Structure formats: structure tokens, C-alpha cells
């Protein structure tokens, strides 16, 4: 458990991730222009996919910090770039969901706040969800 005066701890999107997403959006538009050969539908689909990827990258730039833990509770990103503070007494459970699909293992941090469930993956946290869950549990006050 951290002392009450301990500073907040943050987990954020790795800085390279929005850059990769924006580069991917540019590549999609270029490929759409090169391969559409006059087909407006193909070009429109490429531009739409690029727009979605760029929007996802902008979210990473606007709200890079996805999770903060402090002595008074947890703050999680909500919606596109909003934040929601969860006092410790509102946090019912902190778990890690592990799944294997197509031979690939994935972990998701789950923060259950009763009426809401907040899900964060490694790309959101910049760290393994199991390690973050352990830190959150150790930061939680003994009575919380």
C-alpha cells in the first residue's frame, strides 16, 4: 500500500502508437489512390478506413493517459477523451481477463465499478495488464 502522500501513478498509450496509426492512415489513402483505377467505391472505402484510423490516433493524442491511480481512487478515460474518477469504494473488482484466439494470447484489465466496466489493454496502458492490476490492488486502501 502506498502512503497517503504518494504521488499519482499514470499509465498511457505508448508515444509511438499514434504515429504508427497516422502513418497507416496515410498509407491507406495512398494505396486507395494507386489501386482504385477510377473506381470511386474503392477510393471511398480506403479514405473511410483511413479516417477511422486517423480518428483513433487523434484520441491517443488527446487522451494519452488512460489510467491514473491515486490514494483517493482511480481515474479512467471515458468516451472519446473524457475522464471519470472512481473513488476506491466504487471499485468492486480489479481483474485481468486472459483469452487465446487464433493462437494469440491477449490480456485485458477489467475495472468493475458496479454500473460500469472499464476495459484497458496493453496498448492503452503501455504495460502488461497483469502488472497494472497488481499495482492497483496494492494501492487500494486496506478497508476499500
Largest sheet: 4 strands, antiparallel
> How many helices does DSSP assign?
4
What number of domains? 2
Number of strands: 7
The SS-based structural class is alpha+beta
| Low-pLDDT residue spans | none
How far is the N terminus from the C terminus? 12 Å
Coarse morphology? elongated
Q: Bin the helical content.
A: 40-55%
Radius of gyration, in Å, reads 19 Å
Q: Which strand-content bin applies to the residues?
A: 25-35%
Average pLDDT, rounded to a whole number, is 91
Walk across the major sheet and give the strand order. Answer: 1-2-3-4
The arrangement of helices and strands along the chain is EHHEEEEEEHH
Description:
Helix 1 packs antiparallel against helix 2. The protein has 2 domains: 47 residues; 74 residues. With 144 residues, it is α+β, with helices and mostly antiparallel strands. The protein is built from 4 helices and 7 strands; from the N terminus they run βααββββββαα. The strands form 2 sheets. A 4-stranded antiparallel beta sheet has the order 1-2-3-4. A 3-stranded antiparallel beta sheet has the order 5-6-7. A hairpin with a 4-residue loop joins strand 6 and strand 7. The model has no long low-confidence stretch (mean pLDDT 91). Helices cover 40% and strands 31% of the residues.
Amino acid at each position: 500500500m502506498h502512503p497517503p502522500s504518494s504521488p499519482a501513478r499514470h499509465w498511457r498509450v505508448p508515444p509511438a502508437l499514434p504515429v504508427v496509426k497516422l502513418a497507416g492512415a496515410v498509407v491507406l489513402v495512398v494505396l486507395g489512390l494507386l489501386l482504385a483505377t477510377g473506381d470511386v467505391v474503392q477510393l471511398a472505402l480506403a479514405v473511410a478506413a483511413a479516417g477511422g484510423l486517423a480518428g483513433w490516433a487523434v484520441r491517443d493524442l488527446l487522451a494519452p493517459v488512460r489510467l491514473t491511480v491515486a490514494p483517493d481512487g482511480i481515474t479512467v478515460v471515458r468516451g472519446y477523451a473524457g475522464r471519470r474518477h472512481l473513488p476506491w469504494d466504487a471499485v468492486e473488482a480489479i481483474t485481468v481477463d486472459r483469452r487465446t484466439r487464433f493462437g494469440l494470447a491477449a490480456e485485458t484489465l477489467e475495472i468493475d465499478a458496479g454500473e460500469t466496466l472499464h476495459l484497458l489493454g496493453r496498448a492503452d496502458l503501455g504495460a502488461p495488464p497483469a502488472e497494472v492490476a497488481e499495482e492497483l490492488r496494492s494501492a487500494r486502501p486496506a478497508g476499500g
